[in-house]
Amino acid sequence: MTCAMVFVRIDVVRYTIIGIAGVFLLVVLNFFRDPERKTPSGENHVISPADGRIVFIKDVYESRYLKQDAIQVSIFMSPLDVHVNRFPVSGTVGYVEHISGVFVAAFEEKCADVNERMLIGVEHKNGSKILFKQVAGAVARRIVANVAVGQPARIGERFGMIKFGSRVDVLMPRGSQMHVGLHDRVTAGESILATLPAQT
Length: 200
Known about the structure:
Blueprint: H1 3-31, E1 45-47, E2 52-62, E3 68-77, E4 84-86, E5 91-99, H2 111-114, E6 117-123, E7 129-136, E8 143-145, E9 152-153, E10 158-162, E11 166-173, E12 177-178, E13 185-186, E14 192-195
Antiparallel strand pairs: 1-14, 2-3, 2-13, 3-11, 4-10, 5-6, 5-9, 6-7, 7-11, 8-10, 12-14
């Protein structure tokens, strides 16, 4: 092997490493972006807390905070989505709980019951209670939620994030009027998921 061939191989390795590092840097910068959003008006709207695609809409019974039948909307965030989370409604934070767990892929239905997750409950001024869950995924291993019981929640306002791909579930009272369907793409702070019943 000649000296020229050795130098060519070294250059190929060097530029390959630089290229991989550049791609990784772009992915990280893309992940941490935090664009401004314009939240639509409407007192009883439930706004999407996350960017992503709706992977489940189903009827459930929620026993921790709502303690009633509910509609669950699950939003899957890929690593390419914005990961800043926003309050889906205005009201008062009435419930916060962190639950340790495993790290099943976030698009699997069971992940909301077994994965590490943060549960946040907000009481709307009309008496409705909303529960939303930040659920860690197979890649996402860190949940950030700057909330405490008793603090005011303001619709569309940032409250935290889940790092590198995950899921957010929103549970709202049965009887809420849905504005989205399965596989729809939604935008945090802007997309209307549902309208709450006028009174509970």
